[in-house]
Amino acid sequence: MERIIRRWLHGSRQSVTEPNSEQFAGRLEERFQRMAIPLELHKVLCPSELAPLALGAALLMGTVVGCSQPAPPQASGTAPQSARPAQQNQKLRVTATFLPVYLFTKAVAGDAAQVDILVKPGTEVHEYQSTPDDVRALAQTDLIVKNGLGIEEFLEGTIKSAENPNLKVIDASTGINAIDEISEVVHSKEGKENHEHEAGNPHVWLDPVLAKKQVENIRDGLVAADPANKAIYQANATAYLQQLDTLNQTYEKELNAYRDRTFITFHDAFPYLAKRYDLKQVAVVEIPEDQLSPENVKRTVNSVKQFKAKALLSEPGVDNKLLSSLSQDLNLTLRPLDSLEAGQTDPQYYFTAMNANLQSLKAAFQ
Ligand SMILES: [Zn+2]
Known about the structure:
The chain has a five-stranded parallel β-sheet with strand order 5-7-6-8-9, with helices on both faces.
């Protein structure tokens, strides 16, 4: 109920799209084609995917294995218990919850694991509600990678519904100290409880240094789940971590020149970035909305005056006509600042977007 109220209070972004169930069905079919088992037959056998081993055995014996039965115990021996039939050369199946953790996971996994994304880019993660397709996806995956810090509110229930006893979870934010309210958020009177994450602000991926910690956590989780590919995961992670180091150095160097470092956002996504580089984020609203409320407009105008801001920074892709006309009225430039909750799925997109953000910040501070 609380979530419904919040959803109603916040509205949703215009770019919201329904998860593409056709794509999912396509992937499922592809997998069964590889296994030479017709999808229709599989659907008859079991609504959720059986371990290929069990299904193969069932077909051979001409029996149907009950779907609620646990996977057959592995033959006793020295091999560690694993959800993954490594002996069949099947890749580890990894599901990342949403874009930033997908980018980091894909960067580390490369082609050694099959990495899918649960909340498709362009779908609002903050207020996300899972679908039956998500439950099916988690029923069939070996490993979930989540950002943690409370942003994936839907996940706990989805995992429960998936009833996948072998499912492992990597929390990419393990070891990161979340901080809330470290930057100015201009709250409305009733606003604070509208959208408060249980574990502090979750947007740690937007600080390149904390992103490194997330990549390391993901690397260690993949190595633990799939030690056979340890060398690949480590090499891929090392290369990506070096890029994050370079990005951090670029931010430090290029922002150093500016004395005035206050920026106004319409999504409280950048407090960690601000803290890292000694900037001041003034977030007028906490998560992007379709249209600013009249009260938000008032607060924006006040913040611009109070902080003598020279630019407004808004999520790319959020078509906010009110925001563009407001920036015109205030004689300010409206610049994009990407929270990476939407965007491209190439792991290099992180650097493309973060470098573009740097240019927007520099322009805002000039
Ligand atoms: Zn966000």
